Structures are given as C-alpha cells and as structure tokens.
Request: fold
Amino acid sequence: MPDGMIKILPPFVAERIAAGEVVERPASVVKELIENSLDARAGRIEVELEAGGKSLVRVTDDGIGMTPEDAVACFKRHATSKIDRFEDLELIRTYGFRGEALPSIGAVSRVRLLTRFRDRDRGTEVVYEGGRLLRQGEAGAPVGTDVVVRDLFYNVPARRKFLKTDTGERAACVDIVARMALARPETAFHLLADGKTVLALPPADGHRRVLDYFGKSSRGGERIEYESPGVGAVRGVIWHPNVLHRPNRRGILVYVNGRPVDDRLVVDSVTGACRGITPIQRFPQAVIFLDLPGPRVDVNVHPAKFLVKYADEGAVRRLVKAGVARALSEAGVDLTAAMPLATGEPGRPLDRRPYPSSGRREAYEPDDVPFGEGPGASDREPMGPLPRSPLPEGQMSFSTEAALPLYEDAPWEVRGQFAETFVLVEYADRLLVIDQHAAHERVIYEELARYDESGFVPSQELLLPPRVELSAAEAGRVSEHLELLVKYGFRVETAGASAFRIMAVPEFVEAGEEERIAVEVMSELARIGDDAPLAQRRHLTRSAIACKAAVKAGERLTREDMLSLVRRLLASPNKSTCPHGRPTTAELSESQVRRWFRRS
Ligand code: ADP
Ligand code: MG
Reply:
C-alpha cells in the first residue's frame, strides 16, 4: 500500500482551477468588470479591447471607487462588499456577490487596478499578476475605477489554445457589452476595439436601447407590460413573429432581475406563445425583462451567473406567455392559430413605465457614433409575409385550387400528420392532404423569387466556413453559377482546384444544415448548362435550393411547424404545385367520405 495519494493542491494551482469557472474567455472578463462597475453605480462605463480582449481588456468607470484597503482586499477570494450573511442572497440586487471575479481574473492575467474612493483625494494603484500582489501604492486618479487586464491566460496555455480568433473573441465581447447595456439603459457605455469605437451609447430609456440593439429592422416592436400578483412582472418588447423572425433562438434575450441569463424556460415560453404565427423553422425576436421577488429565483446556481433557478417554473412560464400573448393580441396580431394559452394566475397589465428599472442618470455628451456595428446591426429585412395572390386555375384535377377559393383568412385547422409525410387540414367541408415536402418547396421557392427583381436573400455568415470538395467536372460547372448563388443568399469562394469555402448561407437554413444544403445545391447546379437563359437558370437555382432546404418526407413535424407551413402555403402564389410540377395538395370532401359509409 503506497502512502495516501490524495494531496492538497498548492494554492496557485487551486486558484487557476477556480478561475476557470468564472473566466472562460475575454468576454467573461468584460462581463465581470462591467458588473462591478454597475454595482459601483457608474454613470458611464468605458470598455477597451485589443486583439479581441486577448491582449487587453480595460474597463473604466466613474462609480464610487475603492479605498486603498479595499483595492488590495478585492483580490482575495470571497472578498465582497455586497453581502454579509447567507440570508442576504435572497435579496441580492447587485450583480456580484460571490467575491470571485477579481481573484479569478488576477490569477490568470496581469492586472493593474487604479481607483479612487469618492471622498478621498488620492487614489491607489495595485498591480497583481498570476495570483500575486506585485505592487501597491498611492497614485493620482479620478474618482472611480480603472481595471486593465493584460495577457489573459498567459500562464494557462491550455486555456489560451481554446480561445477563438481575435474576431471571434471580439464578437463575444461586443455582444456581452451590448447585452449589459440593454439591462442598464440609464448608464452610458462606450466600447473601443483596437482603437475604433464600436458602441457609443448615451443614457437612454429602455425602449430606445432595445431598438438600438436590434438595428434598423427592429422598428415596430410591441411593448410587453404584465404582472401577476405574487409571481412577478414581465416587461420588454416582442416583434410581430409573422413579420420579423429569426433562424434561431438567439433573437430572444432574457433578463432576470436585470441580469442577462441564458434561460431556456423563458425562451421556450416566448416561442410557445407565438406558436402557429411564427413561420416554420423560424423563431421570434424579443427582449424579456423578468422581475421576480428574491425568494422566487435563485441566481446562485452557476459561477458565471448565467443560469437561474425558479421556485415555480410553471408560474414563470405562464407569466411570460400571458405577457407576450397580451402584447401581441393588443397589437392586433391574430393569435387564434396559436396553441391555446395556458391560463395562469390572474394577471394584469402594468402601468406604463420605463423598463428595466430606472436607476440614476448622469449628464453625458453622446458621441454621434451610431450603434451600427453592434450585434444584430447586420440584420437585413426579414422575409416578411408573402403577398396574397388571386388563385390561378389549378392545373391538376386533384388539386384543391380549382374548386376552392383558399385564402389565408378562411377558417382551417390542422388535424395532424399522416405517415410523417402528409399534413391533414380540415378546411370548410373538406379534408386537405398536403405533401409536406412539396408544399415547403413551393413556399421556399416563392420566397426566393421575391428577391429576383430586387436585392438579395438575407444570409447569415458562417463563423467557421466549411471547406467542401466537389469532383473536378462539377467544380468547373458550378463556378459559372456562383453569382446566382449570391443572389439567393449563398456566398461561396473557391478554395483550391475543385474545393470551395461556404462563407454564408440563406438565413432560413437551420444550424447544422449549412454544409449539407450548400453541397447538395452546388451539385445540383453543376447540372445546369451555362448556356441556359437567365430566367431558366434562376428557376433551376431556386428549385434546387427549395428542394434541398425543404423538410423531407418522413420527418415528424410539430404542430407549430404544420400550422406555419399551411399558413405560408395558403398565402403563396402557385400553391397547387411544387416547383417541379407535382401537386402539393389533394382533397376529400365530406360527402365523398359519407358515401363510403353510405351515410349520404
Ligand atoms: P463581487 O462583485 O462578487 O463582490 P469581485 O471580485 O467582482 O466580487 O469584487 C470584489 C469587491 O471589489 C466588490 O465587492 C467591490 O467591493 C470591489 N470592487 C470591484 N470592482 C469595483 C469597482 N469597479 N468599483 C468599486 N468597487 C469595486
Ligand atoms: Mg463582481
């Protein structure tokens, strides 16, 4: 038997391990430092980055500052001025309370802290490196705190290796600054990256900040203001999900008691409330500020405080759904196609007042740099609802269109899915059987066609553009069609003799599907002759994209997917056939079915 194998880790090893839970990447440093500045009641916060924050993160505030004693003490683990007793956790209204950020950051970087407490006339400078105090002394400084963090993970190479490119890390930093800025509109934020101003936000009211965050396409959001006594309140903005929608859930931002959180429960409640009105495979855009009394939420379940736990999940879900549904129905969005809303505790609308809670405000001269480079700023107009069209004569005797004036607003109801291939719809006295693939193809095809005369299909850049190999013959022929692909939202660059790099795909392409769809579309295009007239090449390109991106036969659809598919199909031109000419819809009348059973 050897001696005991358990050892107590030397403190500097333990420090670095603990640091890993709080500080994962430059954006975590940015978040923690901003939280400290907000807790110090800053009226203005400046953030500076170099190399995506890898070589420098600097956060400067005009908050209350620290005394010389505190400027040293704050690097000790579990040193916090924010709570004294465990019970205080329930009432916590500051961002920090764990006393871990500065020690964690100090363990894995070189930090210089310069601070002056508001009623002192001298400041303090502290230099802390790799977990050790190197220097402390008096220094001239304005009231407030200035933290400079250099060379993050210089002593943890394994961590450094996992960081993304400067651009990737920078994007994450910008995103967290913007998300914090949304929570605290009364505070001015200024963000400089590699010497260039990226964000310049003067103090504003909450609604204004939200609009700035999402950029131009965001006009027309509806305010959410709702309260359920005993549960809490929900405020924020929801956009009409049938007009503005996104390819993923990242357009739904959630805050709990002013804290940005990644909270699936609330996100799902929002998507749930918009079910049936958001197009298939799309997600609403919303900002949700939940205000829950302390005992109803636990913010201390994750070191980076990105997760929360609710005492009563059902109540939170009902509160959010009710708030969203009310905002939309008041704005005239027809929710009848939506899933029935769970009826919750009796709720009531809130008085109009700014959200999130207003804090102190300070005079600040706004720079006139727009919020332009912020996240979401690259959003272009979404594919909106399609124009309705008079019905062309159906070519197929089996098609519904010859007989039925199908308009979007005629009453219909999805009755289910059959064989995981067909959607069954009851429409007046008929049962429609819709081929899900053919129908989705038509819908996508027509949406692409809307951009034929003007503009480009909105696309999403891929963070890690995949490289794909085609056969030499295919590659040669595809190259002729790259320009058309751009029009329809694919940006493909050559990356070798017969290789390509997929830089961007249309927005509606689902995460994880980008490479498959791009490759299949390219092989499809390789079959088009380059002598074909433009109109025909467009038609073939649109058909190829529609075919590859549409749901397949054999895929189970949610009710939400089916409602959205039917809704879009009914609004689509040429809805009776898919782009290849196969029927999308067949029908049975009630009298036909009655005759089967000799009931007529
Ligand atoms: P926490 O925020 O959880 O208390 P931190 O390690 O982030 O822990 O900070 C430790 C303490 O240092 C804070 O409680 C606060 O007293 C002080 N502090 C940190 N940053 C600032 C700042 N920007 N302005 C004033 N005080 C600060
Ligand atoms: Mg903190």
Summary: The longest helix spans residues 166-183. The first strand starts at residue 44 and ends at 50. Residues 412-587 form a domain with the formyl-coa transferase, domain 3 fold (CATH 3.30.1540.20). The CA atoms of residues 100 and 303 lie 9 Å apart.
